[in-house]
Amino acid sequence: MIYDYVQTDLAGTLVLAGDENGLRHLNFISGKHPVAIQGNWRRDTAHFTAVKRQLAAYLAGERKTFDIDLLPEGTPFQMKVWSALLEIPYGRVVSYEWIARRIGRPGAVRAVGAANGRNPISIIIPCHRVIGKDGTLTGYGGGLDLKQRLIRLENPDIFLGL
Fold this sequence. Notes:
- The chain is of the alpha/beta class.
- 30% of the residues lie in helices and 17% in strands.
- The chain contains 5 helices and 6 strands, in the order ββββααβααβα.
- The strands form 2 sheets. It has a 4-stranded mixed sheet with strand order 3-2-1-4, with helices on one face.
- The longest helix has 11 residues, at 49-59.
- It is globular and about 45 Å long.
- The mean pLDDT is 92.
């Protein structure tokens, strides 16, 4: 596994990890589920140049989509949830219930929330676009303040029940 760090003004320090096949992790250096750098991982500051460039453009409000090979690892249920997250349009928010229905599991709202919270490729797999059914912000690995800033970056006019 190859890894590197990227410092951002909006999201702080992020850890990137993957291999020649794609990106496997983009996580906050601290938070609920930080990536633990393993002893056999190799740091390569040049490997993620395209990811860093696209991420910087997104965080500057200049990019709405990413063109990166993503290789998250999870259970079949988690993979369905993360796939559904990729279908949420830029600048929009949906509820956990919307995701549950989207994957054909309308009764699995809490499980969707848990899978959303274990998203290994934050920001690019846009788990920040999922909010409570009542419009309130709910958990986010980078903190609710960052979740709100990412949502507002994409759509400054969006109403959030804060």
